[in-house]
């Protein structure tokens, strides 16, 4: 394999990683509107990166065996999860004294990470069918999504200070809109 082929594959994987990581950025922007400490932001980014490693890896393994029919199901499941998270955040923001049911900690963080990495599973299915380099692919996907998640969470945290109590409703609206976009691709 020559250098130009390797560079071409690397550029392609970086572009794919950026595209896949943009949902983590967008959702991170929405979730960053909840009051989060920097340690939580660091942890959330690492978990999202971890899911963006494992989901495409599982997808690549299954993609070598199955067809790409599961890709559509994974996108719909991700959309539904984001809609549920978004609705919950909007409702939580309207209830001034009640605790939010789903927060980016514990089980809520797992749901959050799963919802933004399901599309990586779908892409992993396709890449598995085409025989992409597994280690390089998952390393790039994980690293890029972690960085983009951190950027989204930090930007959301800054905006949260400007919006006050309305920031969680805005964050929920962003998640809800992104979930609907996954369910109704244009």
Automatic annotation (TrEMBL):
InterPro entries: Mntp/YtaF (IPR003810), Put_MntP (IPR022929). Its main location: membrane. The chain crosses the membrane at residues 6-29, 41-62, 74-94, 106-129, 135-154, 166-184. It is found in: Cell membrane. It is a multi-pass membrane protein. Pfam families: Mntp (PF02659). Keywords: Cell membrane, Ion transport, Manganese, Membrane, Transmembrane, Transmembrane helix, Transport. PANTHER family: MANGANESE EFFLUX PUMP MNTP-RELATED (PTHR35529:SF1). Belongs to the MntP (TC 9.B.29) family. Probably functions as a manganese efflux pump. This is Putative manganese efflux pump MntP. It comes from Bacillus songklensis.
């Amino acid at each position: 394999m020559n250098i130009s082929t390797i560079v071409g594959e690397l550029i392609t994987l970086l572009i794919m990683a950026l595209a896949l990581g943009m949902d983590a950025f967008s959702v991170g922007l929405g979730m960053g509107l909840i009051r989060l400490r920097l340690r939580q932001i660091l942890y959330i980014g690492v978990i999202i990166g971890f899911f963006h490693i494992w989901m495409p890896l599982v997808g690549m393994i299954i993609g070598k065996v199955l067809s790409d029919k599961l890709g559509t199901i994974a996108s719909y499941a991700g959309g539904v999860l984001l809609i549920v998270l978004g609705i919950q955040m909007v409702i939580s923001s309207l209830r001034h004294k009640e605790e939010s049911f789903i927060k980016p900690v514990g089980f809520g963080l797992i749901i959050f990470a799963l919802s933004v990495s399901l599309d990586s599973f779908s892409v992993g299915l396709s890449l598995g069918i085409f025989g992409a380099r597994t280690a390089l692919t998952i390393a790039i996907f994980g690293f890029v999504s972690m960085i983009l998640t951190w950027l989204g969470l930090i930007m959301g945290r800054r905006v949260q200070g400007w919006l006050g109590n309305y920031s969680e409703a805005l964050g929920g609206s962003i998640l809800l809109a992104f979930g609907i976009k996954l369910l109704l691709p244009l």
